Automatic annotation (TrEMBL):
The keyword Membrane applies. Residues 8-175 form the Glycosyltransferase 2-like domain. It comes from Candidatus Berkelbacteria bacterium RBG_13_40_8. This is Ribonuclease BN. The keyword Membrane applies.
Length: 318
C-alpha cells in the first residue's frame, strides 16, 4: 500500500520471456497486486511469469487472453480485474521492462494524493530523449501526440503514446472499457474517453528505456494512419457527447464551419488548377475566393481549438 491506498500494476505481455521476470522482480514493495495479462504469447512468457511470481513476488495474478487481441485489450482486461479486486490506483507497466520500476512511485503518487485522476509518463521532455528514442519513433510519436491533443482536448499532454500510466478506481468505473481500442491506439483512445469523463490528467517526466538490439513490433507506416483514422472518429464522438449531448458549446459550430470551408477550399483549388491548365491563366476572382476560404477556414479552426482548450483548462494538472 501507499499512503493507505491499494496499488495495482497491470502488465500486458506478448512474447516477453526475456523480460517478464525482470518486470516482476523489480516491482516496488508498495505494490499490492500485479496482474500479468498474457496476450496468447507463443514463447515461454507465462512459464517465466509463474516462476518469477513464486520467487520474487507472491501477489501476482496471471491471466491469459482467450486469443491474441492486442495490447489495448490486454490492458482493459487488467483494468477490469483491478476493479474487481477494488484497487484504489491502477498503474500500467509493459512486460518488456522498458519502464523504469524506480519511477513507479512518482507515477502513482499524484493519483494517491488525489491531485490527478490519471497520470502519464512523458519521455519527450527527458534531456536526452532525442538521442535515446529511435528517430522514426520519436517523429511518429510527435505527430500522433499533436493529433491526440486535438482529438482528446488534453492540449497539455505532450507524449500521448507512452503506456506508463496510473489511474484512479473512480475514473476507471466511469469508462466503458469494452469500447476502448484494442491495439496500439489504446492510449490515444483512453485520453479521449478520459476527457469525456472530465478526468484531471497530469504528465510526469520519465526516462526513456530501450533495450540495445531490441526490435519493435510497431510499424509506423501502418500504425500512424490507423491511429490517425481512429483519432478522427473519436474526435467527432467527443464533440457529440461532450458539447452536444451532455452540454452545449458553440465551438461545434466553429468546427463545422471550418470543415465546410475546408471542403470548399479543396473544390476551388481543383477548379483553379483546371482553369489554369485549360486556359493558361488564373482568373483573379477564383484566386481571391480560394484565399478567402483558406483564411476563414484557418480562423474558424483556431477559434474552435481555443474554445476547446479554454473549456478543458481545469483538467490540466501542473
Amino acid at each position: 500500500m501507499l499512503k493507505k491506498k491499494k496499488i495495482c500494476v497491470v502488465v500486458p505481455a506478448y512474447n516477453e520471456e526475456k523480460h517478464i521476470s525482470e518486470v516482476i522482480q523489480t516491482m516496488p514493495a508498495f505494490v499490492d497486486l500485479i496482474i500479468v495479462i498474457d496476450d496468447q504469447s507463443k514463447d515461454q512468457t507465462v512459464r517465466q511469469a509463474h516462476q518469477a511470481a513464486k520467487k520474487f513476488h507472491k501477489k501476482v495474478a496471471i491471466i491469459r487472453q482467450p486469443r491474441n487481441r492486442g495490447v489495448g485489450a490486454a490492458i482493459a482486461t487488467g483494468y477490469k480485474q483491478a476493479i474487481i479486486h477494488r484497487m484504489d490506483v491502477t498503474a500500467v507497466m509493459a512486460g518488456d521492462a522498458q519502464m523504469a520500476a524506480e519511477e513507479l512511485k512518482s507515477i502513482v503518487l499524484p493519483v494517491v494524493k488525489k491531485e490527478a485522476d490519471y497520470v502519464k509518463g512523458n519521455r519527450l521532455t527527458y534531456r536526452q530523449a532525442w538521442q535515446i528514442i529511435p528517430k522514426m519513433r520519436y517523429l511518429g510519436n510527435s505527430v500522433l501526440s499533436l493529433l491526440t491533443k486535438i482529438a482528446s482536448g488534453y492540449w497539455h499532454v505532450a507524449d500521448s503514446q507512452t503506456g506508463y500510466t496510473a489511474v484512479s478506481k473512480t475514473i476507471l468505473e466511469k469508462i466503458d472499457l469494452e469500447s476502448l481500442y484494442p491495439r496500439y491506439g489504446f492510449p490515444n483512445d483512453m485520453l479521449v474517453c478520459l476527457n469525456v469523463a472530465n478526468a484531471r490528467v497530469k504528465e510526469i517526466p520519465i526516462r526513456p528505456v530501450y533495450h540495445s538490439g531490441g526490435k519493435s513490433g510497431i510499424r509506423l507506416w501502418k500504425v500512424v494512419p490507423t491511429i490517425s483514422w481512429l483519432l478522427l472518429r473519436r474526435f467527432f464522438w467527443r464533440l457529440k457527447v461532450k458539447y452536444i449531448i451532455e452540454d452545449f458549446h458553440p465551438l461545434v459550430f466553429f468546427y463545422f464551419l471550418a470543415i465546410i470551408l475546408f471542403l470548399a477550399s479543396l473544390f476551388l483549388l481543383v477548379r483553379l488548377i483546371y482553369l489554369w491548365v485549360e486556359s493558361g491563366h488564373i482568373p483573379p476572382i477564383n484566386a481571391l475566393a480560394l484565399v478567402f476560404c483558406v483564411i476563414m477556414t484557418t480562423q474558424f479552426l483556431f477559434f474552435a481549438m481555443w474554445f476547446d482548450m479554454d473549456y478543458n483548462k481545469d483538467l490540466k494538472v501542473k
